[in-house]
Amino acid sequence: MNLAHYLGLLHHAESNLAEAFAQVADAHEDEPDVALDCRRMAQQCQAHMEELSPFVDRYGEDADDEPDRLHSDLFQGTRTGALALLRDLHDLYLMTSESDLTWTLIGQAAQGARDRDLLAVVQRCETDTATQLAWLKTRSKQAAPQALVVA
Questions:
Q1: Domain spanning 3-150 has what CATH number?
Q2: Quick check: 90 and 22 in contact, CB under 8 A?
Q3: What is the pLDDT of residues 130-142, one digit of tens each?
Q4: What is the rounded (10 degree) CA torsion for 7, 133, 84, 71?
Q5: What tens digit of pLDDT does each residue of 19-69 get?
Q6: CA 76: distance to chain centroid?
Q7: Could you say which DSSP state residue 65 is in?
Q8: Helices and strands per DSSP (H, E), number in the chain
């Protein structure tokens, strides 16, 4: 069963995302909404990992370093300067998109396996991830004029 591979991918992706959200929150303390919301989203990612644990135990976890490579290629730490916030939000959006698609694929597998418990977790966590994506896109739109035109 290849579900173990995708559970591993998702577990690593959520771990990297939690760390990245926390780093962005710390780096952008001067933007209170960013700091607050990124900390909340980091906690959500941590909760997602905890909710996945019983299914990792059941199906296994067999992932290579793909999410780690994505994390290190995209997110090499927070930035400084005029574009800092916009670039950090952009990186978070791309990383969150990875989790979003992986949740969707695991949801499809849960349906195929008739695993109602896994499907319920996917539906809860997928909703959080969709909200994270929406917030990141909206906040990026808000930051773009200042970063791209005024600076």
A1: 1.20.1260.10
A2: no
A3: 999 999 999 999 9
A4: 10
A5: 999 999 999 999 999 999 999 999 999 999 999 999 999 998 876 666 555
A6: 15
A7: S
A8: 5, 0
